[in-house]
């Protein structure tokens, strides 16, 4: 088993019309044994940028703390929040810095840039960025997430339809992966509001 699969995870981000959604499962496991069913994989950096971290749970928490620290330094120095593209470059640089003993994480970054244009990207554990205009996924449920998102995604969805689409894609994907699941956690972000919802899924 790969160390990336040790705790199990599923993270997906999807763009809509001037909005984006980011979702993850809630299971924390040690291989096939479930330890917790309320693990937080998605974190808010500021009101317009969110990051989801799949991979080894201890590295997820360590990397998140480093990113919050670096973003606060940026806010103090620049007196503004980071743009999503800038934040993605920061994450990439921090991961590449540790390339000889990497953080065992695969981040998914989603944000609203200038003119409320959604931005999403993912990267591997040493910071190689992969940009997309529709959706990005990471975690042990990646394969089934790709299939579900390909089938369900439509361009320019409104916030409510986007929530429904990403929720159905996440729930149907984690049912096909024994290392992730136990419900879902979804954020839908528009220029005016942030909606956070907890999904109930199969509990087996």
UniProtKB/TrEMBL annotation:
InterPro entries, sorted: Ntn_hydrolases_N, Proteasome_beta_3, Proteasome_bsu_CS, Proteasome_sua/b, Proteasome_suB-type
Subcellular location: Cytoplasm; Nucleus
First-listed, main subcellular location of the protein, grouped into a coarse class: cytoplasm
GO annotation terms (biological process): proteasome-mediated ubiquitin-dependent protein catabolic process
GO cellular component: cytoplasm; nucleus; proteasome core complex, beta-subunit complex
Gene3D superfamilies, per database record: Glutamine Phosphoribosylpyrophosphate, subunit 1, domain 1
SUPFAM superfamilies in the cross-refs: N-terminal nucleophile aminohydrolases (Ntn hydrolases) (SSF56235)
Domain of life, per lineage: Eukaryota
Claim: Nucleus is one of the keywords in the record: yes
CDD domains tied to this protein: proteasome_beta_type_3
Keywords, ordered alphabetically: Cytoplasm, Nucleus, Proteasome
PANTHER family per the UniProt record, alphabetical: METALLOPROTEASE TLDD, PROTEASOME SUBUNIT BETA TYPE-3
Complex and partners: Component of the proteasome complex. Component of the 20S core complex of the 26S proteasome. The 26S proteasome is composed of a core protease (CP), known as the 20S proteasome, capped at one or both ends by the 19S regulatory particle (RP/PA700). The 20S proteasome core is composed of 28 subunits that are arranged in four stacked rings, resulting in a barrel-shaped structure. The two end rings are each formed by seven alpha subunits, and the two central rings are each formed by seven beta subunits. The catalytic chamber with the active sites is on the inside of the barrel.
Its job: Non-catalytic component of the proteasome, a multicatalytic proteinase complex which is characterized by its ability to cleave peptides with Arg, Phe, Tyr, Leu, and Glu adjacent to the leaving group at neutral or slightly basic pH. The proteasome has an ATP-dependent proteolytic activity. Component of the proteasome, a multicatalytic proteinase complex which is characterized by its ability to cleave peptides with Arg, Phe, Tyr, Leu, and Glu adjacent to the leaving group at neutral or slightly basic pH. The proteasome has an ATP-dependent proteolytic activity.
Similarity remark: Belongs to the peptidase T1B family.
Protein name, UniProt field: Proteasome subunit beta
Natural source organism: Brassica carinata
């Amino acid at each position: 088993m790969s160390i990336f699969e040790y705790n199990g995870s599923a993270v997906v981000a999807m763009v809509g019309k001037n909005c984006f959604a980011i979702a993850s499962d809630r299971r924390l496991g040690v291989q096939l044994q479930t330890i917790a069913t309320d693990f937080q994989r998605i974190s808010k950096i500021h009101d317009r940028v969110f990051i989801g971290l799949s991979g080894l749970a201890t590295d997820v928490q360590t990397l998140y703390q480093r990113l919050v620290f670096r973003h606060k330094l940026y806010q103090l120095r620049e007196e503004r929040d980071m743009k999503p593209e800038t934040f993605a470059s920061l994450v990439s640089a921090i991961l590449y810095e540790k390339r000889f003993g990497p953080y065992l994480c695969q981040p998914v970054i989603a944000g609203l840039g200038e003119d409320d244009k959604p931005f999403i990207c993912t990267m591997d554990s040493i910071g190689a960025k992969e940009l997309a205009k529709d959706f990005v996924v990471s975690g042990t449920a990646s394969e089934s997430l790709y299939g579900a998102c390909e089938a369900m995604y439509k361009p320019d969805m409104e916030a409510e339809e986007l929530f429904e689409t990403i929720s159905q894609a996440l729930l149907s994907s984690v049912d096909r992966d024994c290392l992730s699941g136990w419900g879902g956690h979804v954020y839908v972000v528009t220029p005016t509001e942030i909606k956070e919802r907890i999904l109930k899924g199969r509990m087996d």
